[in-house]
Amino acid sequence: MTTRSETTPAPVTTADPRPPDGNTTSLRKPILAGTVGNFIEQFDYGIYGYLAPYMAASFFPGENQTAAMLGVYAGFAVSFLVRPFGGMIFGRFGDRLGRRNALAVAIISMGVLTTLIGVLPTYATVGFAATMFLLIVRLLQGLVQGGEYAGAVAFIVEYADQKRRGFYTSFLSVSVFFGLLCGAGLSVLVASLVTDGQMETWGWRIPFLVAMPLTLFGLFLRLRIPETPEFRRLQEEQKLAIAEGRHEEKISQAPLLDAFRTQWKPILIFAGFAITNAVLSYTWATFLPGYLQGDPINMPKQQALAANFIALGVLIPCLVVSGLLVDRLGRKPMLIAACLSTLVCVPLAFRVLLAHTFTAALIAQLIYIIPIMLISVALTVSMAEMFPTKVRYSASALAYNLGFGIFGGTAPLVATFLNSVTGTIWSVPIYVCSIALISLLCVTLGFRETKGTRLADATYDN
């Protein structure tokens, strides 16, 4: 793990907008600016997941429906697999030129790409080129998304009061699931207002087009917020060093290289416990609704989605409570509790699920979200606290995307594959619990408590 010397930072001449009393009202704009981009990202995932059958018919040959659906899900996986590369690009940008600037580029890029899906030509119009256009857009979205979440976490944590970082970053976790809820909910609404034929031809495009006004609103918010106090402190220290003729690199010119060189241990440790959050979240949000609708449960689509929506609605306020607990109990106890509860709750949830009723599906998902509630905020806040300001964006983006890029995007495919090959749904909870055991080892043996970490630490090493 990193060790840091406690040195007194150079005085910051720019007024620090961070309220000394940690007042939530004073931090409302930074919280909104930080979370809005992540909301749009997850809004896109909610749309993409719900509209997958319509997109399969629009962008792939119609002879083989299964192959077409696999193609749509491949686009989902591709956007995750390229995330680490996006994290490298935006991390370098954010550590050199500022968090706000990187996040402004990220949100406008994300909005344009999501909107672009809504205007792409179909397979019936341009043939295989339509398939390639969709996959290219998803690839570019993955690059942008690789830099969004880590940057938003750094942005909020660097504004937040030290004693309430968990509470403030809980709103980022809220934005993840609220974005999924709104994206899927809007898709359901549009589908209910138009005929099936209209939905197949042009109705599926509407939710994607809604992304642009959301993006412009988010960009407006981000450009109105000053750079974070922590990054401005580095800028002032760099100016002072230059003025005094000192050859000190306060702002790294090669933050990604510095992150690899000095932070490789915490990067691997973080990725090691992030994989549980990744597998838990995307097995639940993406695989379970589809499983409920197929054999042997054969639940009507409306009921399957309703159970998922209700569980999402319960989870969202629970995440804020989790943020309060993270601040009170610490990050490490919450992470350990999350891993242990996964070993109990996930098998129990699948056992309840096998009752094949709507009530069972709802209760099972309410059980399933317990470890998600425990891990999401603790993971989010520790992501920024584990790394020094000088390379925080690059290191945290790389660590987060290693876990989520590899294990999050592939979670629905792995779950579907295991269920198909083994012939039993129990292979899925066994997989999730195996991942949780790996994370438990990473947390207990490698993670050092980050509660109360002083973000202004001036030096770092291994």
Question: Secondary-structure blueprint of this entry?
Answer:
Blueprint: H1 28-50, H2 52-59, H3 65-81, H4 83-97, H5 99-117, H6 123-126, H7 128-159, H8 165-193, H9 196-203, H10 205-209, H11 211-223, H12 229-243, H13 255-262, H14 264-293, H15 301-329, H16 331-353, H17 358-385, H18 392-407, H19 411-422, H20 427-446
Helix pairs in contact: 1-5, 1-7, 1-8, 1-11, 2-3, 3-7, 3-18, 4-5, 4-7, 4-18, 5-7, 5-11, 7-8, 7-17, 7-18, 8-15, 8-17, 14-15, 14-17, 14-18, 14-19, 14-20, 15-16, 15-17, 16-17, 16-20
Task: Walk me through what this model shows.
- The chain has 462 residues and is mostly helical.
- The longest helix is centred in the first third of the chain and has 32 residues.
- Helix 4 packs antiparallel against helix 18 and helix 16 runs antiparallel to helix 17.
- It is 77% helix and 0% strand.
- The protein has a single domain, classed as MFS general substrate transporter like domains (Growth Hormone, Chain: A, Up-down Bundle).
Compact overview of the structure:
The protein has 462 residues and is mainly alpha-helical.
Terminal Cα separation, in Å?
6 Å
Percent of residues in beta strands? under 5%
Task: State the CATH architecture.
Answer: Up-down Bundle
- Domains (count): 1
Instruction: State Rg.
Output: 22 Å
Mean pLDDT: 88
CATH class: Mainly Alpha
List segments where confidence is low: pLDDT < 50 over at least 5 consecutive residues: 1-17, 458-462
Portion of residues within helices: over 70%
Derived from helix and strand composition plus strand pairing, the structural class reads: mainly alpha
Tally of contiguous helical segments: 20
**What fold name goes in the CATH topology slot?**
Growth Hormone, Chain: A
Assembly of the depicted chains: single chain
Largest sheet: none
Order of SSEs, N→C? HHHHHHHHHHHHHHHHHHHH
What form results from the Cα inertia axes? globular
Number of strands: 0
